[in-house]
Design brief:
Helix content: over 70%
Number of strands: 0
Radius of gyration: 21 Å
Shape: elongated
Strand content: under 5%
Order of helices and strands: HHHHHHHHHH
Number of domains: 2
CATH architecture of the largest domain: Orthogonal Bundle
CATH superfamily of the largest domain: Tetracycline Repressor, domain 2
Distance between the termini: 85 Å
CATH class of the largest domain: Mainly Alpha
Length: 213
């Protein structure tokens, strides 16, 4: 009995999240009402409130779901046994391309940061989104001797900040295709600069030898 109740509860929550995702994508968070979400999900408003305190919590659930799906897609895009830094570059390009998808662009990059606030928006991604994958990629690169093992956590935070700033810029751009191409190239260079050149202890581009005076 408890298992059946749990399954029904999960099914109801999934229906609410799916309905809200469609409505937020099409109309935006502000123009979507709880009545519309309940109607589209095929549940009563009481059932909706049983699972979610308010519309903000529904948005958080939708954004969490988008983050998990994005992580699964990023993992699926990486070739097994590939160069970890090349995998990071490929993943960043994949992510920036995904930023043009209506649901991710509208919910993850416009409504979620505005409604949930920067701290909660970032913490949801850190728990189940791209930050964990980026950190794993840096650790793999360091283990393979491709980048310096120093300050990996701090470097992961700097890189994810750059990637999300690029994504936000693309989401708000009047020329998203052009902006995405520019940001992808810049991020590509930044990630390639992580690579440790032979004979150098840390990552970053090689510096030409200074000529003798």
């Amino acid at each position: 009995m408890r298992r059946q109740q749990s399954e029904r509860s999960d099914t109801t929550k999934q229906a609410i999240v799916a309905a809200a995702c469609d409505l937020f994508t099409g109309h935006g968070y502000d123009r979507t009402s709880l009545d519309q979400i309940a109607e589209k999900a095929g549940v009563s408003k009481g059932a909706l409130y049983h699972h979610y305190r308010d519309k903000t919590e529904i948005l958080a659930a939708v954004y969490t779901d988008l983050c998990h799906h994005m992580s699964e897609r990023l993992l699926g895009d990486v070739e097994p046994g590939s160069d970890p830094i090349e995998a990071l570059r490929s993943g960043s390009r994949f992510f920036l391309n995904a930023c043009s998808e209506p649901s991710y662009r509208r919910i993850a990059l416009i409504d979620a940061p505005a409604v949930l606030g920067w701290s909660r928006w970032r913490s949801i991604d850190a728990d189940g989104g791209g930050f964990g994958l980026l950190r794993q990629g840096l650790v793999a690169a360091a283990d393979a001797g491709l980048t310096s093992p120093e300050h990996l956590e701090e470097r992961a935070h700097l890189l994810i900040a750059a990637i999300f700033e690029a994504a936000l810029l693309i989401a708000r751009s009047d020329t998203p295709h052009t902006t995405r191409a520019v940001m992808a190239e810049l991020l590509d260079r930044q990630l390639e600069d992580l690579r440790t050149a032979p004979g150098r202890p840390g990552g970053g581009p090689a510096v030409a030898d200074r000529p003798a005076d």
